[in-house]
Amino acid sequence: MFDIGAVAYLRSEAGEQALGEVAERRLTGASLVSDIASVRAQFGDHAAVLVETVQLRRRAQAKFTDPDRWLFTDEALQQATAAPVAVHRARRLTGARVHDATCSIGSELVALRDCAGQLLGSDLDPVRLAMAAHNAEGVDLCRADALVPVTHDTVVIIDPARRAGGRRRFDPRAYTPALDAVLDVYAGRDLVVKCAPGIDFDELTKMGFTGEIEVTSVGGSVREACLWSPGLTAPGVRRRASMLETGEELTDAQPDDCPVAEAGRWIVDPDGAVVRAGLVRHYAARHGLWQLDPDIAYLSGDELPAGVRGFEVLEQLQFQERRLRSALAARSVGALEILIRGVDIDPDVLRKRMRLRGTERLAVVIARLGSGAASRATAFICRPSR
């Protein structure tokens, strides 16, 4: 749908005016067909790119604070770095000479523009480069293959494509460009690589990666894993969890001495970035918490860390559906949040089986505690702190 001609039109005064007019239409539900027909009658062959751009800008509200002037393709928007994550990464590169070798539509370039000492963007796709010229106005751009280096003495950023035909690729060797090829081509150079949050850390080791893996979350939701070559991180740091909502960071170079004990007053489910980065014990040590089980991510403490959502324990019982249903009925529970680790239970199915009829809003935390034959599924009926 998008080609160089379409991008040129969208960037023109006539295109910008047309986008403003199309943006006034709902383009959803019952009006969609008639809206598209009206746009086609008014703007002819340009209708498809106008409608698509307006719809993409609306979807982009979830990632960007000001997407109303941006140009996107659908696939590029799916892969584009959310603004808070891009800004966080750019700050780590303040003052550096940076080459974004897979700049796509320019989401990283916009964040880097105010931080980098010198900045270049490149991509193989001419349409995305044309969009980047619009979105990241003023940044130098060139067309180049990410696996054929065109700069020296720069920090190179690579964001491999992890989708093909709308489907995600989970094998990092199937990324575009392939992750093993990226690590080989840029061996010995300062390199930053954006990866899927679920990437297998052991596979990275097998590929020879020896730097830092940073897992980043926004609002408690894990957004990505980012690889930082050894020259870009502190000595001894191999894993980092960055929680952008609170500004807290943890690394595996920090203390991780915490006990394992019975539940105290509060149960804490650590941020997903902490869990994914394998820094649960480090988080517990920092906040004076302890583990309920050495293999389960739930933590406990008698005081709730500032700004952290927790679950105040009201009752503990061995998990059996019948017993839990009876305990919830006795507390007149009508709305129930369910958290689960280490047990094969579908929360939505379990909630229906509880036959909730009351007015109280509570939570139940279910975890398998202990090991081997002594392990048991335990349920904690709790009151959420918020």
From TrEMBL:
<keyword id="KW-0489">Methyltransferase</keyword>
<dbReference type="Pfam" id="PF18096">
    <property type="entry name" value="Thump_like"/>
</dbReference>
<dbReference type="GO" id="GO:0032259">
    <property type="term" value="P:methylation"/>
</dbReference>
<dbReference type="GO" id="GO:0008168">
    <property type="term" value="F:methyltransferase activity"/>
</dbReference>
<keyword id="KW-0808">Transferase</keyword>
<protein>
    <submittedName>
        <fullName>SAM-dependent methyltransferase</fullName>
    </submittedName>
</protein>
<feature type="domain" description="THUMP-like">
    <location>
        <begin position="308"/>
        <end position="384"/>
    </location>
</feature>
<dbReference type="InterPro" id="IPR029063">
    <property type="entry name" value="SAM-dependent_MTases_sf"/>
</dbReference>
<dbReference type="InterPro" id="IPR041497">
    <property type="entry name" value="Thump-like"/>
</dbReference>
